[in-house]
Amino acid sequence: MFYEGTEKRLFICTKDLNLLTLEQSFWHNLVSYAGAEIISNINNHHISAYLLSESSLFIWEDKLLLITCGNTQLVKAALFIQQQLTKQKISTLIFQRHQALKPQLQATNFQQDRMLLEKQFNGHLQHCREDYQGDLFVFGDISTHTIPTQGIYMLHGLRGEFAESLQSKHIDKASILKTLRFTDFFDSLTIDHFSFKPKGYSLNAINQKDYLTIHLTPEKLSTYLSIETSLTDSQCAPFIKHLEALFLPISLKKIQFKANNQQLTIISA
C-alpha cells in the first residue's frame, strides 16, 4: 500500500481579527475543505492545536498553519479562508508543497493550485530544486517575525527494528511515544497524539506560543517521518540525533525559512 506522507503547508497571517475567537465549526469546515477531519484538540492562552486525520492545524491569535498529507487538496482550504475572512483580513499567505514521492497520484499539482491562488492573490512563485525540492506561492508581508516555523526535518527511507515493527503491525500510541523518548527531550510540552489503524502516528505538542508536530508514515513503499517546530535547532538537535539512530533513514533533510527584504528564502541542509 502506498500513502503520500510528504506534506502540503498553508500559512496565513491575519490583521484586525483574533482567530482564537472563531467558532469550532469554522475550523471543522476549513479542514473538511482540504479533505481531512479533526481528531482532537489541545490549547493554551496562546495557541490551539488540532490533530487531523491527515496531519495538523495550529492557530494563534493572528496566524494559522494548516499541514496536510495524503491526497488532500489544501488549495481548497486556502480559497475557503479567502472567501470567509476576505482578502482584506489576510496580510500574508504562503502555500507550499514539498516534492511528492508519487505526484501522479495527487488530485492536483502545484501549477493547478497556483492558478487558483493567482485569481485571488497577487503573489509570486518560488521553486526549490536543490537539496530540498518544493514549490511555494507567496503573498503579502514577509518578515522573520511573521513565520513561527524554525525548522522542518524530513526523514525518508526508515529502517531498523522499530521501523519494521511499525510496518508489520499496529502499535499503540503509548508504546510509540515511549520508543520515541519524546518526553525525555521535551518535558515542558503538552502532548496530543494518535496511532492510526492499520499504521501511522501523529503528535502535536505546544508550550506557550511554541509548537512541535510529528507525522510518521511507516508504509514500506513510502516510509517517512517529519518533524516541524517553532523550537530552535539547538533545542531539537538531541531529539533529531536520537531519531536518526532509531530509524536509520536513507536521507534526512532539514529546511529553515529566512526572510530578507520581503523575500522568503528556504535554507536546506
Please describe the structure with a list of short key phrases separated by commas or semicolons:
269 residues, single chain, alpha+beta, 7-stranded antiparallel sheet, globular
Secondary structure elements and their pairing?
Blueprint: E1 8-14, H1 24-34, E2 38-43, E3 48-52, E4 55-59, E5 63-68, H2 74-85, E6 90-98, H3 110-118, E7 124-129, E8 133-140, E9 151-156, H4 161-168, H5 173-180, H6 182-185, E10 190-195, E11 201-207, E12 210-217, E13 224-229, H7 233-247, E14 251-260, E15 263-268
Antiparallel strand pairs: 1-5, 1-6, 2-3, 3-4, 4-5, 6-8, 7-8, 9-13, 9-14, 10-11, 11-12, 12-13, 14-15
Beta percentage is: 35-45%
Percentage of helical residues? Answer: 10-25%
What is the distance, rounded to the nearest whole angstrom, between the alpha carbons of the first and last residues?
30 Å
Q: Give me the Rg, rounded.
A: 18 Å
Unreliable segments (pLDDT under 50, ≥5 consecutive)? none
**Mean pLDDT over the full residue set:** 94
What strand line-up does the widest sheet have?
2-3-4-5-1-6-8-7
| Main pleated sheet | 8 strands, antiparallel
Structural category is alpha+beta
**Based on DSSP secondary structure assignment, what is the total number of beta strands?**
15
The shape, in one word, is globular
Continuous helix count = 7
Strand and helix order: EHEEEEHEHEEEHHHEEEEHEE
Q: Could you walk me through the main structural features you see in this protein, from its secondary elements to its overall organization?
A:
There is one protein chain. The chain has 269 residues and is an alpha+beta fold. It has seven helices and 15 strands. It has helices at 24-34, 74-85, 110-118, 161-168, 173-180, 182-185, 233-247, and strands at 8-14, 38-43, 48-52, 55-59, 63-68, 90-98, 124-129, 133-140, 151-156, 190-195, 201-207, 210-217, 224-229, 251-260, 263-268. Helix 1 (24-34) runs antiparallel to helix 2 (74-85). It is globular and about 50 Å long.
